[in-house]
Amino acid sequence: MFYACRWLLPIDRPPIEHAWLETAHGVIRRLGEGPPPAPAENLGDVVVMPGLVNAHTHLELSWMAGQVAPAASLVAWIRAMLTLRRSGAPGGQAREAQAVGEALASMHASGTVLVGDISNSLMTPALMARAGMGGVVFHELIGFDVIDPVSVVSDAIGRLGIVHGQIDRAVPLVRLSLAAHAPYSVAPSLFREIAARVPDGPLSVHLAESADELAFLRTGRGPMRDLLDDLGSWTPAWSAPGGGPVEYLAQQGYLRRGLLAVHGVHLADDDLWRLREAGATLVTCPRSNLWVGAGMPRIPHFYAAGLPVAIGTDSLASVDSLSLFDELAELRRIAPDVTAAALLASATRVGAEALGFGQTHGTIAAGKTAALLAVDIPAGVRDVEEYLVSGVPSSAVRHLS
Ligand SMILES: [Zn+2]
Fold this sequence. Notes:
Largest sheet: 7 strands, mixed
Shape: globular
CATH superfamily of the largest domain: Metal-dependent hydrolases
CATH class of the largest domain: Alpha Beta
CATH architecture of the largest domain: Alpha-Beta Barrel
Number of strands: 15
Structural class: alpha/beta
Number of helices: 14
Bound molecules: zinc ion
Number of domains: 2
Distance between the termini: 11 Å
């Protein structure tokens, strides 16, 4: 199958104007510039680009859309979210599953082909498989006062085994892993056990999302401690390590290649360098950071540190859409000096590599999966990369296959 298009954006090289592409059985065969070498379907004034990768969301919270108001601090937002979560969705699990299905449909419509999903309930892998959405579901563990971390992780791995058996074998794109929620909600022993039981492949953690987390690690006090007290989760067995969040992960053996460090709003430059040295990826979710009162992520510093930066939307409890194009527009607004090419690489190649799909997704290259988008380009647009980070509506996006 040959396609001709006005623009082709391979990601690992500059946009090609007047390009062609050959695919066969869902795989990219070759691409080039100028007239196609065989009769081709002419896609017209579009840019053909890799499908987008949303490296961090919580699909199971989709039923909360619009119900957790923007907050002045992360702890205030968490308290409101937990109150709503305890009440459950009106309509129960059926309504929650319906909301996940709607969220997956909207993600597909806005060009997403892979997701890094955080799940406590494990309702999402089967729903992703049914929707044809690939990615990694990180079964997230929370527990600050944990007595037997070995059995907590063994039980979680047992649940993953059951879910694995339920996923449609025809959709091998949904993979499973574990994640620790955050340093203020997970015991050091639980971090260590997860790291030991997931020796390679992607891992995830919410890291340095708020300044209160840093204060808690430094002093053991503040709003995070108050939250643990109120939840009945505090344990005097824990004492403040005194250092920063990246050092804290390193102490638990959790800082390693394949780690997705999500948010990093309050990481200093030396923390960013240390993540890079470890082979970790930073996943930034700027719209969510502003919604929950976590602060403004230091986007230019993330890129300047040479750290791989992927992009997530976080959940519908803290953003009003799961569109990566909307997230890219926010990144462009708050980081006007980061190149559009770098932002687009974050939304495709870097996310795919972070989730372990770098061999098949993230760029347009011979041998990779043809999970591609054709995005309408308005007449007169000369800088297609800038256009793609300006807030592309879903109505302009279609999947090539
Ligand atoms: Zn999150």
